Amino acid sequence: MTQPSSLAIVAGAGAGLGQSLLSRFEVEGMTAVGLGRTRPINPIGTFLEIDLADAEATSLAIAELIAQHGPPKIVVHNTAELVIAPFEKTSLNDYQRTWTSMVQSLVILGQSVLQPMVTGGGGTLIVTGATASLRGGARFSAFASAKFALRGLTQSLAREFQPAGIHVAHVILDGIIDTTRSRDLHDLDPSKMMKPEAIAEAYWQLAQQPPSTWTHELDLRPASEGF
Amino acid sequence: MTQPSSLAIVAGAGAGLGQSLLSRFEVEGMTAVGLGRTRPINPIGTFLEIDLADAEATSLAIAELIAQHGPPKIVVHNTAELVIAPFEKTSLNDYQRTWTSMVQSLVILGQSVLQPMVTGGGGTLIVTGATASLRGGARFSAFASAKFALRGLTQSLAREFQPAGIHVAHVILDGIIDTTRSRDLHDLDPSKMMKPEAIAEAYWQLAQQPPSTWTHELDLRPASEGF
Amino acid sequence: MTQPSSLAIVAGAGAGLGQSLLSRFEVEGMTAVGLGRTRPINPIGTFLEIDLADAEATSLAIAELIAQHGPPKIVVHNTAELVIAPFEKTSLNDYQRTWTSMVQSLVILGQSVLQPMVTGGGGTLIVTGATASLRGGARFSAFASAKFALRGLTQSLAREFQPAGIHVAHVILDGIIDTTRSRDLHDLDPSKMMKPEAIAEAYWQLAQQPPSTWTHELDLRPASEGF
Amino acid sequence: MTQPSSLAIVAGAGAGLGQSLLSRFEVEGMTAVGLGRTRPINPIGTFLEIDLADAEATSLAIAELIAQHGPPKIVVHNTAELVIAPFEKTSLNDYQRTWTSMVQSLVILGQSVLQPMVTGGGGTLIVTGATASLRGGARFSAFASAKFALRGLTQSLAREFQPAGIHVAHVILDGIIDTTRSRDLHDLDPSKMMKPEAIAEAYWQLAQQPPSTWTHELDLRPASEGF
């Protein structure tokens, strides 16, 4: 499916899952490019500092990547903007920010990569969801509404671009990803966290599925996580 | 549950369902107030022309209503902003507009009414969903992502305000509502459209449920509609 | 929708919800008939002791009812057979018994009433589900698999009989019903249990929906129940 | 995860997916054993003719396999019993047969393999679902109710055996599998059918997931299939 040296883009490529995805793609010989607001220390492959909610900057950067490397074969949308607060303490700005970071950024990304991918003969777009994609919990109103929106948008993209040979998949991450930051934030035994390398492997396998047998949604959670 | 002369607010009170809801509430002796951008001809009860995505204007208008009539016992969120277009032809502005009209307006409405309703001893908030709340179809990316977001937000509100005695329900309208505008737009036998009075009755029944037995989500569709 | 003196049948009419349903229907002037294995003390309306998993006995009894009263306008399927046990301790017989009591009984009931209801000009069939209709929990494998099956069967019936004017609805009861038996079994404040009269009211309202606006699934739970 | 020479069992190992699964497992050096009523021509690995709804025969055969090879590392439940008919033409026997073939057989299989797998240090059980696992369509009442039941049962098994290190996953096959039989039955371009080898690959990947990152449900469908 995926040729060595073809382009893989991870939008939202911070330390943790983003970098593990780039690493997984690079191992296969792909040209791995990460996009995001904050450059991680020693980033894998190429990293472009960019605000993914900025349509002009993002579409320009991606157009340049495509001019140089051809249309991407794998694109991952992996931006995150978590707000946890009671409804009364969640500001309009919180709602706008989570929506802009997670939904508007997928619109911009999709409009930058999908048509070139169609022209380039196909490819895979994977969108990272969360528990909150399926359940609006108390104190998660901003985050859940944005993650729900992202899922609806991803379904529309899957149905619209499937006939043109683009595989669009939504992955529900139901658990804490094991990163330095998670270990600081959560009082949880790291053995109960999802390893970013294992998630990256699942994304890679999605991108290897032939058109006869595509997954449009799957969940991933630690064996230790109730569900 | 609902006392005569208590306040009922319909946010998004255009001709069709909005007006039928106000009529249903007025029949019960409630003070029916519609809010929306465009005043319908001969509106039921009081109609306030207001942009529901404008936080300041909306919260001020609702504060005045509450000062005059006490906290509402029934509030319906019923704004609509339909966009149907291929992804490539859907602008960022389309996404922002559907989100602002449908999701931001519920945040503003909720932050204006919920705390007074809690103080006032309870009440019901009903949010109008659509087929696109559960399924992101081709050419519905903007509308579906906003309707998904609305559902996630509504679930969070239900879980957060349930302990305080507020019943928050989401209604999935899976069909065309029979209005003058629908009859012009759709080449569909009106006998296959949902009658706004029948939908209003279902909303009224939701508001009558005692706390021992609350519905949080139901669907409504014509007998003629495949599903 | 429902004429006085028309027939209402509740299959699974024990003390609690079954009897409350019959009472609600009788108040409207309907001829209320309960079916079930065990006659409750002072049953509402007519009670026929019958094993609802017995095809011959059930279809014969219903044929006689129809000969006498005409086809039913409302039929409720409300049989219950709860098994809670670890998978290793759940016998094949447990699986067969829950399935036979809940699923086979709906097949037999449907094949006895649906065609006469079509001929009689329509009516409503309501099927009682549970939390376990949507979620297979640990130690609920027998009960959940039967309740899932019941939901699948109900959906097929809804889609098959909708064009013929039969409204088939599935109600998810997510909480403990307040009965003498529940109060003995559960160490739960009865104020946190669902009142059978309130559930019966919701069923009655379903049966009143006009064909333009049918609900096919709704949930009911106490305000005190997490979800 | 999976050691060469460890045991893989496919219950429902006919021509098509069953045989492709055995082939995929054998390629990895596993001992591949197929179970089923009808021996395919030139079966992969070992094939035992057995009625999987027969508790005694099945548990005995599996106990012998375990005595010989140790507990299985991968077990797939893949029995099928399709009935398509209007509700009025579907007999009680049809319902019993689909349930027995698909649900009872999983109970028997699970009670034969799960405890040994726990003792053996873990493993993966994969259950094959269908479109009808999520949607009860017209004329599918028997098949859908059994597939719904299977999904509920699988969820209970997943939740119950996850803490003991067993990965239980449900795969929704939403499309026609490309087999000789499908090509005869369906007037569908084989390029629009799912290749059994590709499905087998997805099952294999599920069995490779580490406990930090388990999928409990995924869908598989051809790019050509609407959803």
Automatic annotation (TrEMBL), chains A, B, C, D:
InterPro entries (alphabetical): NAD(P)-bd_dom_sf (IPR036291), SDR_fam (IPR002347)
Protein species of origin: Cohaesibacter gelatinilyticus
Name of a matching Pfam family: adh_short
Name this protein carries in UniProt: NADP-dependent 3-hydroxy acid dehydrogenase YdfG
Source taxon at top rank: Bacteria
